[in-house]
Amino acid sequence: MNVVVVESPAKAKTINKYLGSGYKVLASFGHVRDLPAKDGSVLPDQDFEMLWEVDGASAKRMKDIADAVKSSDGLFLATDPDREGEAISWHVLDMLNKKRVLNGKSVKRVVFNAITKKAVLDAMADPRDIDVPLVDAYLARRALDYLVGFNLSPVLWRKLPGARSAGRVQSVALRLVCDRESEIERFISEEYWNISALLKTPRGDEFEARLVSAHGKRLQPRAIGNGEDAGRLKALLEGASYIVDTVEAKPVKRNPGPPFTTSTLQQAASSNLGFSASRTMQIAQKLYEGVDIGGETVGLITYMRTDGVQMAPEAIDAARRAILDQFGERYLPEKARFYSTKAKNAQEAHEAIRPTDFYRSPDRVRKFLDADQIRLYELIWKRGIASQMASAEIERTTAEITADNKGEKAGLRAVGSVIRFDGFIAAYTDQKEDGEQSDDGDEDGRLPEINARETLAKQKINSTQHFTEPPPRYSEASLIKKMEELGIGRPSTYAATLATLRDRDYVTIDKRKLIPQAKGRLVTAFLESFFTKYVEYDFTADLEEKLDRISAGELNWKQVLRDFWKDFFAQIEDTKELRVTNVLDSLNEALAPLVFPKREDGGDPRICQVCGTGNLSLKLGRYGAFVGCSNYPECNYTRQLSSENGGEAEGVALNEPKSLGTDPTTGEELTLRSGRFGPYIQRGDGKEAKRASLPTGWKPEDIDYEKAMALISLPRDIGKHPETGKMISSGIGRYGPFLLHDGSYANLETVEDVFSVGLNRAVTLIAEKANKAPGRGARGTPAALKTLGDHPDGGAITVRDGKYGPYVNWGKVNATLPKGKDPQAITTEEALALITEKAGKAPAGKTARGKAKPKAAAAEAKTTKTAAKPKAAKAKAPAKSKKS
């Protein structure tokens, strides 16, 4: 009997079926060791020795693997076919060696690019040894990311309160987003005019031609800069006669693109389907690991973490047969198409992402997949099959026309195109972002019949005014594309990088655009000022190239670390003498458009609008940065820093308290003010004044006397409970709008309910809450949102929504979902990993089910030292999994 180690329990079950009873397939659940999330886990003074930690859940799994290996004939390490998969295999092997259970047994590494019977059996027949240079590259990346994060982040905490973290790739990606925002803020719009003529042929067909030259000079784009010039040119065309100089019809071929790589899949899924990078990878993971197709678990796509653009020869043959069968002979090119990667620093070559079987068309598997899975599978299938189809044939027609007005001449041009043969477009068309032209045709449309030297009749002259627009904010798709072009990071990490920026509140996403928040812009400005080299695009790309050369066996990984650490450590040491005033002065200049937005009255934006003499500047508080007056405490003017509305700060309109009226009961004035934590209502003055922050969604400009009175008067008495006779009240608390009755709370759905809910509805909500929490002090179990199936040890796994957010439940184990995770999108495998991790953290030597933890597992959970080679997983990544 041989032991096979894979990463996912879903894959373990499927692969065991393929291999038969002579094999026992066990899952590692991703990484089995990690660098502890504390300082001192990588030791530069000891030649970058790494200290590895095994948590309880991983220790239990490693014990199961070790026990199986003891009685086995050999070991096959079959983790994923990428750098992280190689590292997991290395970690497993290293730990088994330390346990001394191998005893000369055969150990082989196998990789399969798809979870199909043929792919698995072929891989098992062609094993190899662990790729040491690939593990070295992993170790170097893990050490670099750790050293940057655990040395640079504390500098941010000390010098820039409110900042949460910095990272080797994360900070450079954030800089891209912030630099684009700065471009937008600096952008000055310019006026320009476009002029065109609606013309008619002798046969009565109309078409439009654009003005391209006048008075013998060619007009460059946006050359007509004002209405006066536009008017003169329009007058010239109004009185002109028109004749066709030349007509040229030119055939053009458009070739298909290659099958998807990780980054192009993420980009296309964002543009075509609206998926985030993380969501795309979650769905692709499931399609790769396999879905139930008529009672058999089948992997539908090849491995989804790849830079490769080429398909295997047998896949190309299968695609060509499918094209012939489904589209016809005309759509099959004479020879197969071969592609080479254009990505900068493309890493280890794997197959492109493609269907495992091209005859398994989207229509044939639709009933077995959920809505998102079929949409992504269809995208992958169409792109894969289109990559081997015939070129699209397009006829592009250009007509050059002369306008003559009493000797004054101008040139016009009409361009049109028509698809003569759709070719690959019959299967797949790309959807572009930010106004880019799609590849499924030509935006100019088709021209009518036009002949050279014939006269045209003028129908109408159009003169339209336009203004240049700033560059668009990045979307996830366009940011991934830019990072890949610059060679920053690697496609397999893009989803995690973007998720980190969102989780740190450095960026938000609005209408699929990435908007840097004030916190993110402060961090970027700080790093650009004091750690310039480490957020430079070229430096980061050069470091990535070195890491790739390590994986190719061309560089020593520890020498790369030594070279990096020498300069980086010196830079860290230099910041110890850095004064906060130096930091603030630098940030004031770097972020001037954000910190000092233009004033409507044209006054100096750096002078306090309240006292008129103080200088405004960034200030650092416990909860982050804000703008304050230099005359504090005599002048207590403050306002928040905000990236909204193109850099204008919140509360700019509240330079002084705005009077809203007088409270009829107390006689005190109600004012709308702006403070460090945002806009608020205040009644009265001094220490006894009552204050109430504006609820989420309420804008200062919408606040009137009635809203202010309602807010400042909270809590609101609704009426006495008909059974207890005690008052029911409503209010807004730390966790949102609520009802209060006899010391018990019930949630309200919206802030507006606080002011409008009646007694009958309030009594009903309180009763519903009481029914969910029977017994003294007991909390009821929320109803299941989704049932995922049974746990391998028995018992149902469900997804529920609790007081602190959605979680997965199995028996007495509750595991919170990662921030931003859609509870409806959680898979059984992800839930199992979360439950296993949670169970491994049970206190006082107990497992989550109350049984004593085995001594071996407890001992394995202790931190271990590895000088030779270490392991990589995110310090706090859920379920110890490397999957995005």
Outline the fold blueprint.
Elements lengths: L1 E5 L2 H11 L3 E5 L14 E2 L5 E4 L3 H15 L3 E4 L5 H17 L6 E4 L7 H8 L7 H28 L10 H17 L4 E10 L5 E9 L2 E2 L8 H12 L2 E14 L7 H12 L3 H13 L1 E3 L2 E3 L14 H14 L35 H4 L5 H16 L5 E14 L2 E14 L33 E13 L8 H11 L4 H13 L3 E4 L2 E4 L1 H13 L6 H15 L5 H18 L5 H11 L1 H4 L20 E6 L2 E6 L8 E3 L3 H4 L10 E5 L6 E7 L2 E6 L6 E4 L11 H8 L3 E5 L6 E7 L2 E6 L2 E4 L3 H6 L2 H13 L12 E7 L5 E7 L2 E6 L2 E4 L11 H12 L15 H6 L3 E3 L18
Parallel strand pairs: 1-2, 1-5, 5-6
Antiparallel strand pairs: 3-4, 4-33, 7-8, 7-15, 8-9, 8-14, 10-13, 10-15, 11-12, 13-14, 16-17, 18-19, 19-20, 21-22, 22-23, 23-24, 25-26, 26-27, 27-28, 29-30, 30-31, 31-32
Helix pairs in contact: 3-5, 5-16, 5-17, 6-15, 8-12, 8-13, 9-12, 15-18
Helicity level: 25-40%
Overall geometric form:
globular
Round the Cα radius of gyration to an integer and report it: 33 Å
Low-confidence stretches: 345-349, 435-442, 644-655, 774-780, 842-884
Q: Please report the distance between the alpha carbons of the first and last residues.
A: 34 Å
CATH overall fold name of the domain at 140-187 and 474-581: Topoisomerase I, domain 2
CATH class descriptor of the domain at 140-187 and 474-581: Mainly Alpha
Q: Would you identify the CATH architecture of the domain at 140-187 and 474-581?
A: Orthogonal Bundle
By secondary-structure content and strand pairing, the structural class works out as alpha+beta
- Across the major sheet, the strand order is 7-8-14-13-10-15
Oligomer: single chain
* Proportion of residues in extended strands: 15-25%
| Average pLDDT | 84
- Would you count the extended β strands for me? 33
Q: CATH superfamily name of the domain at 140-187 and 474-581?
A: Topoisomerase I, domain 2
SS element count, helices: 25
Q: Please describe the biggest sheet, giving its number of strands, its sense, and whether it closes into a barrel.
A: 6 strands, antiparallel, barrel
Site (Interaction with DNA): 31, 141-142, 145, 157, 305, 504
Catalytic activity: ATP-independent breakage of single-stranded DNA, followed by passage and rejoining
Biased composition (Basic residues): 871-884
Domain Topo IA-type catalytic: 131-572
